[in-house]
Amino acid sequence: MTGTLVLAGTPIGDVADAPPRLAAELAAADVIAAEDTRRLRRLTQALDVTPAGRIVSYFEGNEAARTPELADALAGGARVLLVTDAGMPSVSDPGYRLVAAAVERGVKVTAVPGPSAVLTALAVSGLPVDRFCFEGFLPRKAGERLSRLREVAGERRTLVYFEAPHRLDDTLAAMAEVFGADRRAAVCRELTKTYEEVRRGGLGELAAWAAEGVRGEITIVVEGAPESGPTELDAAELVRRVRIREEAGERRKEAIAAVAAEAGLPKREVFDAVVAAKNAAKG
Fold first, then answer.
1. 71-108 burial, b if ≥16 CB within 10 A, otherwise e?
2. Model confidence pLDDT, tens digit, residues 102-124
3. Quick one: pLDDT band at residue 234, thresholds 50, 70, 90?
4. Do 203 and 176 form a contact (C-beta atoms < 8 A)?
5. Which of 140, 138, 158 lies closest to 150, judged by CA?
6. 189 in helix, strand or coil?
7. pTM exceeds cut of 0.85
8. Residue 283 in contact with residue 269, Cβ under 8 Å?
9. Residue 227 burial by CB count (10 A; 0-12/13-18/19+): exposed, middle or buried?
10. Within 10 A of 135 (CB to CB), how many other CB atoms are there?
């Protein structure tokens, strides 16, 4: 008889938000796979729980290698509890590989629902929540980040992202460039913690605020694209957008084509604007 894989949500800040079943599962599991075993020990102490099972680390660096071992334990009848540092496992955290392996072996997979930074940020953002999509973390490299944002530039649903505090200003600036400086957004910092803060405003305004330095766990909520067609851009704005793409590593021809597509203009019009700006600079 096979075992059971339990995905358990853990507090994203306030330990009092731990779901009631979490303590029982921590005490009963045969194996606890934790993203950070030190954080797990702090959590069990806070919940006054003494795990009876074996505790193993399960994080990005060893996830691929450890998954077969845990899958074998499940196939052998073990109850394996998977917890990450905060929130639900497999949502921008380790877990997907193990869930897939368990499903492939016919192992039961269940969950202890818990706190979610995605849903919490959406709820407090003040932005539409009837339809949304979660984009996780953006790429660290500027060019790749811009490319990913352009893929969803026309997305009508509210967008949710995770971001590291030291990259927040660059990310918001890139969003302002691709989505527009006036697009509404909310930066949710340290949700449910002592210094919780929700900063709302246009992306341009938020980028300027973040440039001063921000700390803590960050979730960004961005309003979806408006129903209206592309905003009419003047020549200076077209040239600026081409220049940003070139600085991110795109060839000029590709940058001009992309900007033309965004603006709904013929490539020749953008090309002429770039040439005119170049000639004006020389003059």
1. bebbbeebbbbbbbbbbbbbbbbbbebbbebbeeeebe
2. 999 999 999 999 999 999 999 99
3. confident
4. yes
5. 138
6. strand
7. no
8. no
9. exposed
10. 18
